[in-house]
């Protein structure tokens, strides 16, 4: 009788350990996939926020390169009252 109970408990514990191992392996695989995706997204963020990317997209956003640059000195009156 005691041997039967022992075998049943041992079998139950073996099944629990095996299923816990499978769940742990699944979580490890998910972690690896998430770390890989995070690295890819970080690389994309760096690439998209580079100056070259901004320059490339500036025209479609309505920005243009100036034809002439105008410098205003402190001596020039910009909005001076009479």
Features:
67% helix, 82 residues, mainly alpha, rod-shaped
Could you describe the 3D structure shown?
- With 82 residues, the chain is an all-alpha fold.
- The protein has a domain at 2-55.
- 67% of the residues lie in helices and 0% in strands.
- It has helices at residues 2-48, 51-58.
- The protein is rod-shaped, with a radius of gyration of 33 Å.
DSSP helical segment count = 2
User: What structural class results from the helix and strand content?
Assistant: mainly alpha
Radius of gyration: 33 Å
Number of strands: 0
Helix content: 55-70%
Element pattern in H and E: HH
Question: Can you give the mean pLDDT?
Answer: 84
- The CA-CA distance between the termini, in Å, is 111 Å
How does the overall form come out from the CA principal axes? rod-shaped
> Major β-sheet, in short?
none
Summarize the structure.
By secondary structure, the protein is mainly α. The protein is built from 2 helices and no strands.
Which helices and strands, and how do they pair?
Blueprint: H1 2-48, H2 51-58
């Amino acid at each position: 009788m005691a041997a039967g109970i022992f075998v049943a408990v041992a079998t139950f514990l073996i099944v629990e350990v095996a299923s816990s191992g499978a769940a742990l392996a699944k979580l490890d695989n998910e972690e690896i996939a998430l770390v890989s995706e995070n690295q890819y997204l970080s690389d994309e963020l760096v690439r998209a926020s580079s100056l070259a990317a901004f320059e490339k997209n500036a025209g479609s956003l309505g920005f243009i390169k100036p034809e002439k640059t105008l410098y205003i000195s402190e001596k020039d009156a910009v909005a001076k009252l009479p």
